[in-house]
TrEMBL record:
UniProt record similarity statement: Belongs to the binding-protein-dependent transport system permease family.
Transmembrane feature ranges: 12-37, 74-95, 107-129, 267-286
Listed name of the protein: Sugar ABC transporter permease
Places the protein is found: Cell membrane
Any GO CC annotation of this UniProt entry: plasma membrane
Natural source organism: Litorilinea aerophila
Membrane topology: Multi-pass membrane protein
Classification via Gene3D superfamilies: MetI-like (1.10.3720.10)
Highest taxon in the source lineage: Bacteria
Keyword Transmembrane: yes
InterPro entries from the UniProt entry: ABC_transporter_permease, MetI-like, MetI-like_sf
Length: 297
């Protein structure tokens, strides 16, 4: 290596050193520490004591709320990921039309996504208030008695899903779909028109295959984000009523930062990490069978 190359390498490492130090001290270091704590009994006030896999065994065999939180999180994912993905796709299709002022419409669609999670939660708590809320007042005008929404065991999950869809449909997923739609060559649609294809046939045979990489990307990130749901439920319901919205992240928070059982909380975090990792690897394998990459051999 020449002197010039050594100087370039030195300045390169110097420039990335803030990120490397941040990664070592704030990401890798805490991850390794939590891995160790997951095999200990540690409540912050006393020194960690090694107990082997006891925390993991307790989670799967004796912690009833662990399985409640898993079930609630899976239900949330099955409810919000398909609806959010399909909603973002059709929002992108609507905003991909050659209309006057379409950039203004795109801005309006994206604005709810920019709303901070706490602000959105407080806004919707007011809208969904059972007695004086806007939504129930409008329903009462047409003779419908609105439910208790966030205070109802049956309606709290749909209510949170409604809030999540309001903030998410017009967000980053919509922009990714929009970019995918605009990358489709117009010649494909022109050839389909010459063959007499209908709008539905063009959508199924041209649009969906061509945007399948965008759909795959949104699905992966959407599933991971749905597993991490915390802020909205923490602000609005705190996991209630009767654990109806008690998601996995809430259970982890409760154990680690309310009960200060850091050992068990670390074990829950690693169970979550491994589950997400395995699911993501499975999706990467599955995408070979349905995702079309233009130009791929």
């Amino acid at each position: 290596m020449s002197r010039l190359q050594r100087i370039e390498a030195f300045y390169g490492y110097l420039l990335i050193s803030p990120w490397l130090l941040g990664f070592l001290f704030f990401t890798l270091g805490p991850m390794l520490a939590s891995f160790y704590y997951s095999f200990t009994r540690y409540n912050v006030q006393t020194s960690p004591s090694f107990i082997g896999a006891e925390n993991y065994i307790y989670a799967f065999t004796r912690d009833n709320l662990f399985w409640v939180s898993v079930q609630r999180t899976l239900t949330w994912s099955l409810l919000t990921v398909p609806l959010g993905t399909v909603g973002s796709l059709f929002a992108a299709i609507l905003l991909n039309q050659k209309l006057k002022g379409v950039s203004v419409y795109r801005t309006f669609f994206f604005m709810p996504h920019l709303t901070p999670i706490v602000a959105a939660a407080i806004l919707w708590m007011w809208i969904l208030q059972p007695d004086i809320g806007v939504l129930n007042s409008l329903l009462a005008r047409v003779g419908i008695r609105g439910p208790n929404w966030l205070q109802s065991v049956h309606w709290s999950m749909p209510a949170l899903a409604m809030i999540a869809l309001w903030t998410g449909i017009g967000g980053n997923k919509m922009l990714i779909f929009l970019a995918g739609l605009q990358s489709i060559p117009e010649t494909l649609y022109e050839a389909a028109d010459m063959d007499g294809a209908t709008h539905w046939q063009k959508f199924i045979n041209i649009t969906l295959p061509m945007i399948s990489p965008s759909m795959f990307f949104n699905l992966v990130l959407g599933i991971i984000a749905s597993f991490q749901v915390f802020g909205m439920a923490f602000v609005t319901t705190r996991g209630g009523p009767a654990y109806a919205t008690y998601f996995y992240a809430l259970h982890l928070y409760q154990q680690a930062f309310v009960s200060f059982d850091m050992g068990y909380g670390s074990a829950l975090a690693w169970i979550f990490f491994i589950a997400v990792l395995v699911l993501t690897i499975f999706q990467l394998w599955l995408q070979k069978h349905w995702v079309y990459y233009e130009g791929a051999v």
